[in-house]
Amino acid sequence: MAEPLRLKAKSASPGIASGPAFLAEEAPSAAERPDAAPASRAVGGYGALEKAIDISIGELEHLADGADAESRDIIDFQIEVLRDPTIAEATGARIEADENVVFAWVATLDAYVGELEAADEEQMRARAVDILDIKNRVLGALAGTPIADFPPGSVFVGKDMEPSRFLAHDWSKGGGIALFAGSTAGHVALLARTKSVPMVIGTGRFSAADGDPVSVDGNAGAVILQAGSMLIPPLAPAQEPAGDTQTTGGELRTADGVPILLSININDPAEIDALDPATAGVGLMRSEFSVATIADAANEERQLAIYRRVLEQAGDRPVIIRMLDIGGDKPLAGLENLPALSTSGLRGIRLLLARPEIARVQARALLRAAVFGRLSVMLPMVTFPDEIDRMRELFREEAEKLGRRALLHRMPPIGMMVEVPSAALMLDAFGAAAFFSFGTNDLTQYLAASARDDIDADAGKVAPAVLRLLAQAVKLTAGKPVSICGDMAGNPHYLPGLLAAGLRHFSVAPARRPAIRSAIIGLNADGTRAAGE
Hints:
The chain is α/β, with parallel strands linked by helices.
């Protein structure tokens, strides 16, 4: 039997505790849960922020009832920050400058956190966690969702822990704390010592499943994990790997023996359950279906939890996540004052570049999620090569910020959705793209000059033009990975033309896999029917 893994750490509070692991990043609070009702997350202007701050102060005052002196001091500090007029003024100025209330609040508090993290004194640096705690509590109040507790008797495992989360938890049933980073001068460490909760810090990131047995030795400064867990070493400076959008899993060949990849498209993280052994991976995850409101778009931890779940369940199979394709007929609740698509073309990557505060949050979540699987990032509605250059630079900037904060991350390959006819005709100009994926829904709409809700009526008539365009475009890809993820890929009627165009990777709705698989094995790679079919 394998020996348990013992990780050296630093004692923050003496004592020994054992229990099931609660992975903070994997099980976010209710304010971050992907299944929280979008209707409960309406976000308004400065009045909504004032109300959220009042709610947060009320919650903290409730925590203070009956609290000991040490706890009361910490709560009083947080309430004092919430009542600080300079915080309100800075946030109000951002709102008046046409910044959404959520991003205005996040930007103001993040600036405060940055100042504290840059301080020379450890006690000042430790207070950054208190400000993050305040930031997240107000975001939860804006979203209309309370901060969730974790199971009594658990060992809390995470990068850090918010003081209010510690105070709200019932420690009478045991439990402990193991932090990847942390500080012995931090408020949580102080509270743990006051309440005799075993706690260690500085373990470095380690891999364990939610619920795995974990022991915290606050006397010796160690964490003991069950056999099979492992330490994840720090990454070297983020490097962008070659496009990794294909896999040898899910063997499928045409009648004449040419390998074909068959992946699935998903809208909801729960649909990853449809990833059976015969499926190559996720060819398209539409992230906008998991980000319903501006509050969701501002919540980095919530997005990270969603992407991590999909990547971990996919295992060693690749997952392509498309950045938010919002605008036009895909509104984001709370994102106001956007001109109509018909007059501005503000959708997909154009909107993300026009509202970089949205793109930066998602970029950080994707960079952090990339360490949990074979992630590739796809940019939506790309029209011009400089759009990819600008987004890649944004990713590099956010990766540098994560590095300065010692947050584990990895630069994923960044490719593009090919859904604009002009882009399809000059793919050889998109040298910065790591891979290409054809979105035939929009290609069909623009080639036929159809309304978005009337594509089906024209799809059959314009299909020859779409197939001809695809054949030309595939020749321009210079050997980079190419796939097709639009509705045309899931229709057996079009498979002969798609194979003839040179496509070898198809991503379809899970329900379409059996029909497409059956059709492929009856066709040759040039699209002709196999003998005897």
